[in-house]
Specification:
homodimer; mainly alpha; Farnesyl Diphosphate Synthase; 15 helices; 2 strands; globular
């Protein structure tokens, strides 16, 4: 585990340890830990910390707090997405989903508690630099709330007419855009300019996810595959074909790298983004795309 | 509608209008409005604003923001509580519950979006007095999160061994305690001392709710009655009998009044609390208890 990965796990542990204390219903605490540990690739908090580092705030504890808040919200969204009324997914990261392991009531509550914890954690850790709290909280909140955050993205699935652009941008892109914007805000850099980088990475990640859904195995992704076609969800792989989707993904990563604003760690960040892009590609395709 | 009631409705409308904008999935926006309007008695935000007023901050916009955040979280908890996996309630406030009207997916998402909105609204409205944001956010967040907030309260229903004290205190009391603590924090008063008042009001409200469940009609409360016995939930009316529960309620309200800290509006607040107590008692019993 590299130093950044260790910092992210520690930040998440500290956030949960602060509320999973005496007096908390033990199974709720267990369900919340199950939702967060062991994690996936932690792509969003890594991105947040990489941007803060590129802007010269690599050691700032506010970066850890923002990264943890973003990952807690991501985990919350997965728990609720897996519920029977949405994807009805028995598996997540190769293990039982929260509702499979703890039942539906605790899955709803664990998701709720994780959303609350994300904001509490920011408030607790940013208490001594209050001028950064409101902007960070609005960036992070905007990525999960209405009109353009994850809940809105998911809600497009309940509309008679779906705007595919809105759907993807809100359901997947918003948290990536928040990751780069928040990393910039930690450092006092221009959030709007950095948001563009996150937008493109988010879109690339969505294409990679679509590709994984058609081209990967259950073992590789740890959840059921082939669900997009089954649930008739809009998919880049469905629209562009596998080859076309790979080209699109490469174009988006290049666009993200080109959009990195001038900053002390620009070159290093470009390397990190390229490495992440290789990482999110399904294994068989990564070789093919190289 | 009195002036405070009008302010609360306006604050809630403004919070929702700020996110139910172009680009938001229309049915999600509709579900969120359905969850919040028309409201119930708005007991919690009234309490928050009454405390702020008693402390000399009756006209402070931060009071409106805190009151709205608290009511949004209360509404979120009702939406999720009504879900099929919890109370499976078809009715709320005399109308279809959110999942009955909009389906289960939008009910989960509307609850999530309301939680997020509560924190965003605080950040947006407290942006120009950042030193109050973190304390207010932690007060409000603590009342809904782990270990002692609403989600924890609800989660006690999923434990093999239930601590009745923890259950009621978290499920109902926490948001009342937050209402008085937040009202005090708006005014820079001692939140811990004011929390005691909210604790007692919350306990009184829980007893009144238990009484309504055994003694009121569906028309009167706008949701199914007799659910506590049916779901074998701990209930003051079940433990103490109706007479005993009424005595307990009166004792708690007196305790709350006695606990009001020294402040400019002490006498007026005592009147407000007594009026609220009469208001929450089921109609038949209110006469009986007078």
């Amino acid at each position: 585990m590299d130093a950044t990965a260790a910092r992210i796990e520690r930040a998440l542990s500290e956030a949960i340890d602060s509320v999973a204390v005496e007096g908390c219903p033990p199974r709720l605490a267990e369900a919340v830990r199950h939702a967060v540990f062991p994690g996936g690739a932690r792509v969003r908090p890594r991105l947040c910390m990489a941007v803060a580092a590129a802007c010269g705030h690599g050691e700032d504890p506010a970066a850890d707090a923002a990264a943890a808040a973003i990952e807690l919200l991501h985990c919350a969204s997965l728990v609720h997405d897996d519920l029977p009324c949405f994807d009805d997914s028995p598996l997540r990261r190769g293990r039982p989903s929260v509702h499979s392991a703890f039942g539906e009531p605790l899955a709803v509550l664990a998701g709720d508690a994780l959303i609350v914890l994300a904001f509490e954690h920011l408030a607790r850790r940013l208490g001594d630099s209050p001028e950064r709290l409101a902007p960070l909280l609005l960036t992070v909140g905007g990525s999960v709330g209405m009109p353009l955050g994850i809940t809105a993205g998911q809600a497009w699935e309940c509309e008679p007419e779906v705007s595919v652009a809105h759907y993807h941008r809100a359901k997947t892109g918003a948290l990536f855009a928040a990751a780069t914007a928040a990393g910039a805000q930690v450092a006092g850099a221009d959030a709007a300019a950095w948001r563009v980088v996150g937008d493109k990475i988010g879109e690339a990640y969505q294409v990679a996810d679509d590709l994984r859904d058609v081209a990967a195995t259950v073992q590789e992704v740890g959840k059921p595959v082939g669900r997009d076609a089954e649930l008739k969800r809009p998919s880049a792989a469905g629209e562009l074909g596998v080859e076309g989707a790979i080209e699109r993904l490469k174009g988006l990563v290049k666009g993200a790298v080109d959009a990195i604003p001038e900053c002390p760690g620009r070159a290093r960040l470009a390397e990190v983004l390229m490495a992440e892009a290789r990482h999110i590609m399904p294994k068989g395709l990564a070789q093919h795309a190289a």
